[in-house]
């Protein structure tokens, strides 16, 4: 299996599956975790993206710069809400719900860009909605804040879907690293402002928290999404998307071994429905060309 693109893809799935686990292990508020995850990843990317950014950014129009900023703000809100959700609900429910982002992206494209949804998506949207409702509402008795956490995870999926739609045209206009540097940098600044306004401290954390920040920047952010980019050069996008549906499964398995966390019956049942709906769309490779993968190659959960 050495050198196989599937080995690269499996490693990418493993890395992104670690994201929710590392968030739980990092003792800091959600906004601080979000800020340092994106901020440190931006600094690590800078040496590799600086040249492309210097060449391409000055050529962008005012509208494209505004789009870049809007995409970064949407990405910041995605991280802030999804990471916060992990304090209230199970890892399985949170990761499954945030993975509804491709469905949100299609709906937003239809509403704001007047794009016609592919036939497979029209079938998948109501099915995935039923599954998401089962996850969000079914296990709310597990703890008082579970429903709130599920709603935060859904909001994270909505914001990620918005990020996909906002940046669609700009991704083609800029080199990937230059685009990612711009949106990650904007997201980090946005999260820093939110933390300051809301009184969330960005200093005074112990060694364990800093190791958590660093691990989040390295493993799921740079490592996971970097390997996804490599896999996308070697394999068809629908194939990559199908593999990346393994993230909720991988995260749930890791949560069981690390936290003894067992998904509830409704979460499992709803999760099967959501994943089946997304897989149905992704297998329709011709129709699903406009549907983002559950994990974007330029940044997500």
Word description of this protein:
This protein starts with a helix and ends in an 18-residue tail after the last helix. The model is unreliable at 285-290 (pLDDT under 50). Helix content is 77%, strand content 0%. The protein has one domain (5-290). Helix 3 packs antiparallel against helix 7 (146-166) and helix 4 (91-98) runs parallel beside helix 7. The chain has helices spanning 5-25, 30-56, 62-85, 91-98, 101-113, 119-138, 146-166, 168-173, 176-197, 207-234, 237-244, 246-259, 265-283. The protein is globular and about 50 Å long. The protein is mainly alpha-helical and 301 residues long. The longest helix is centred in the last third of the chain and has 28 residues, at 207-234. The protein is built from 13 helices and no strands.
SSE blueprint and pairings:
Layout: H1 5-25, H2 30-56, H3 62-85, H4 91-98, H5 101-113, H6 119-138, H7 146-166, H8 168-173, H9 176-197, H10 207-234, H11 237-244, H12 246-259, H13 265-283
Helix pairs in contact: 1-10, 1-12, 2-3, 2-9, 2-10, 3-7, 3-9, 4-7, 4-12, 4-13, 5-7, 6-7, 6-13, 11-13
Rounded Rg: 18 Å
Beta strands, count? 0
Helix content: over 70%
Determine the number of helices (DSSP H or I, runs of at least 4 residues). 13
Compute the average pLDDT.
Answer: 87
Task: Using the alpha-carbon principal axes, give the shape.
Answer: globular
């Amino acid at each position: 299996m050495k050198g196989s693109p599937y080995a690269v893809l499996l490693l990418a799935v493993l890395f992104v599956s670690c994201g929710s686990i590392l968030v739980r292990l990092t003792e800091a508020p959600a906004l601080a975790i979000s800020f340092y995850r994106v901020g440190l990843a931006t600094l690590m990317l800078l040496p590799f993206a600086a040249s492309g950014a210097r060449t391409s950014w000055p050529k962008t129009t005012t509208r494209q710069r505004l789009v870049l900023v809007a995409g970064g703000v949407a990405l910041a809100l995605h991280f802030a809400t999804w990471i916060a959700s992990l304090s209230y609900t199970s890892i399985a429910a949170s990761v499954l719900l945030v993975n509804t982002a491709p469905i949100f992206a299609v709906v937003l494209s239809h509403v704001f860009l007047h794009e016609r949804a592919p036939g497979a998506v029209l079938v998948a949207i109501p099915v995935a909605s039923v599954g998401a409702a089962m996850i969000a509402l079914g296990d709310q008795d597990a703890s008082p804040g579970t429903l709130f956490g599920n709603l935060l995870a859904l909001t994270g999926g909505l914001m990620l879907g918005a990020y996909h739609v906002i940046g669609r045209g700009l991704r083609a206009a800029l080199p990937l690293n230059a685009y990612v540097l711009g949106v990650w940098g904007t997201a980090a600044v946005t999260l820093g402002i939110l933390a300051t306004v809301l009184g969330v401290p960005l200093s005074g954390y112990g060694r364990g928290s800093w190791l958590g920040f660093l691990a989040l920047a390295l493993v799921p952010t740079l490592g996971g999404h970097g390997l996804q980019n490599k896999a996308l050069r070697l394999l068809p996008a629908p194939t990559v998307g199908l593999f990346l549906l393994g993230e909720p499964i991988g995260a749930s398995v890791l949560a069981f071994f690390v936290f003894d966390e067992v998904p509830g019956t409704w979460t499992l049942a709803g999760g099967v429905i959501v994943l089946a709906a997304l897989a149905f769309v992704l297998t329709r490779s011709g129709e699903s060309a406009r549907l983002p993968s559950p994990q974007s190659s330029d940044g997500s959960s």
